[in-house]
Design goal:
The structure is a homodimer. The first copy, chain A, is α/β, with parallel strands linked by helices. In chain A, about 40% of the residues lie in helices and about 20% in strands. Chain A has eleven helices and 14 strands. In chain A, the strands form three sheets. Chain A has a six-stranded parallel sheet with strand order 2-1-3-4-5-13, sandwiched between helices. In chain A, strands 7-6-10-11-12-14 form a six-stranded mixed sheet, sandwiched between helices. In chain A, strand 10 (about 240-245), helix 10 and strand 11 form a beta-alpha-beta unit. Chain A is elongated, with a radius of gyration of 26 Å. Chains A and B meet through helix 4, helix 5, strand 2, helix 6 and helix 10 of A and helix 4, helix 5, strand 2, helix 6 and helix 10 of B. Chain A binds a DNA duplex through helix 2 and helix 4.
Chain lengths: ~325, ~325
DNA sequence: TTTATTTCATGTAACGTTTCACATTTTACG
DNA sequence: CGTAAAATGTGAAACGTTACATGAAATAAA
């Protein structure tokens, strides 16, 4: 007679081993228990192929060893690598990770936060774009790249230093006329500081610079137009460009090719993020590299409050420069 | 007096609204209930900011609306896109997804399967490399790219047709001497069929071909050596190469560049997967595109057994060719 | 051998839901 | 207006754990 109908419970194990329920619980949780009892219980567990029901555990303990990660998607390599390293950091601590792809949709973000809270996750890590995202007071939350108030820690790379580094690098490589190109969310987030850092770097090196900032809604074509307008007699008036992401850098390099400008001979390009071909081969462009593994680790540390110090409002992690073919060095 | 200590429960709502527990449950689950009662309960829910505890629901119902996805990582763009589309397909059905990055480690794969079962997930989707992976009989499992026995459905693109298409395409583009290059897992999985398909295609078009198959442990350098050996008087004896993945195609194209062979003028390259720059821009190389969104959708459909037909052992989804610069068209 | 003390298995209550038999109210009909 | 039938709210039991108070057995002391 088969009974595949439902998985065995602790009660089944207790019956099989001829001991009390509490004894099985102790064995399962490694609490002290008499040698002979332990063996009987362990045998029964093997025989029945028993596995604890972590939903029952979660209900009882009000602790689920589960965290939710909110990111727009895993298509963009930067988000994908963030997801990977956060997953690893959580797994290392025996936490499960629920992945929530928000597609940049503020409503979806809110929906997932609510879902996560219902699911009684132990915490949420979010790279979100909803300026009025409501997170329950008693759900730990760590934000990436955007400050969400004094009680919610934010982890980001040092975007200001990154901008500055880009400017200095371009200057060192001989550029005298540079520009900063930016598109994406117009929200007040950390990546915005790349602009100020770049500006600061240009000023300190005494090179002239221009800014072209496009928000979400603007079509990419405006960049193409901007660049064409700066071409006189076939020559681009910029000898260096700093693009807000590696993705934009790639698009710009394609545009420049169409405009008959050579990269890096005529104009040098520096991006931001540190994206590599197929995730782990060479850099797609010369870039300011975000320390993604460290960002991930820091998010998880803060989320699980491993050190009970008061949470800092903002953690800035150091960036570095990497050569990737779109500069002279 | 504050009571932020713990989240409100149904019992709290019932007390607040002055109704019975069961009535609250009915309101929460949209079951018929008297208008005046419904309003009282809904008010109480709002006032207390009540949210259901899905762990308690899961315990009671033995259904958790959660699935686990096992993939090596989200660094590799193919896996990353798989994760994204599966996530979307699950979310659409109000299922949560636990992401498990296995790093190609068979032991870790087994660990995650066990974990998922303890977590009482409603099912597992896995792209795994453990030939002896043990999955409990009563946990639905859908495998990607590898057949795991008659009772576990496997979803893959039509790898044979893909190989054939690559051969035909190369032949159409004028190639007469081609080769197939493959590295990666030596497991008997679906992607292995690319070779047979390619062979078949070459034979039917009457072009000569060679195979260079490297397994996991072989260093990439062997490809470089293989190619050098086929260069006579500076000229490569192949005019077309079919590489098992886009990733390998990229590495090979770099190697060819070092060997002073021009792509696609001297030798045309076709890869497999359909990887795009930054996930959504242009194809990194000419390639056989896997229908990732359809694969994802099919996995989820089979997992949740939406159509109660007996599960097919293998679902093959059609591939297509996309131009990406490493061929003449 | 008896008593005091320690050790450790036992079994029940509780976690927050859902479900279902039961009780109560409302509606319909004669 | 009274009774039967239909409609609907109630509260206890159960899901599979953990924790704790209880009691039994084993050990140590007298």
């Amino acid at each position: 007679m088969r009974r595949e109908t439902s998985a065995p419970t602790m009660k089944d194990v207790a019956r099989e081993a001829g001991v009390a329920l509490g004894t099985v619980s102790k064995v399962v949780n490694g609490l002290p228990v008499g040698e002979s009892y332990r063996i009987r219980v362990e045998d029964a567990i093997h025989k029945l192929n028993y596995q604890v029901n972590s939903y029952a555990q979660g209900l009882k303990a009000n602790k689920t060893y589960t965290a939710a990660l909110l990111i727009p998607n895993t298509i963009n390599p930067f988000f994908a690598s963030l997801a990977y390293y956060i997953n690893i950091a959580l797994m290392k601590r025996h936490y499960r990770m629920i992945l929530c792809s928000t597609d940049f949709d503020p409503l979806l973000e809110q929906e997932y936060v609510t879902m996560a809270q219902q699911n009684k996750v132990d915490g949420i890590i979010g790279l979100t774009y909803n300026p009025t995202l409501i997170v329950e007071e008693n759900t730990p939350f760590v934000s990436i790249d955007r400050s969400m108030g004094p009680h919610i820690p934010c982890v980001a790379c040092d975007n200001f230093a990154g901008g500055q580094l880009a400017a200095e690098k371009l200057a060192d490589l001989g550029c005298r006329n540079v520009a900063f190109l930016r598109n994406g969310s117009s929200l007040d987030n950390e990546p915005n500081k790349r602009k100020a850092g770049f500006e600061n770097g240009c000023l300190s090196r005494g090179i002239s610079y221009e800014m072209k900032i496009l928000d979400d809604s603007a079509p990419y074509e405006e960049f193409e137009q901007f660049l064409s307008e700066h071409i006189h007699n076939g020559k681009l008036s910029f000898d260096g460009l700093f693009c807000v992401t590696d993705r934009l850098t790639y698009l710009i390099s394609e545009t420049l090719r169409r405009l008959n400008q050579r990269v890096p001979e005529d104009v040098q390009l520096i991006g931001f993020d540190g994206i590599r071909s197929f995730g782990d081969i060479d850099y797609r462009c010369s870039t300011i590299v975000q320390p993604v593994p460290e960002i991930a680790e820091m998010c998880v540390e803060l989320l699980l409050q491993e050190n009970m110090r008061t949470k800092p409002p903002l953690v800035c992690l150091p960036v570095s420069y990497a050569y990737g073919g779109t500069t002279l060095g």
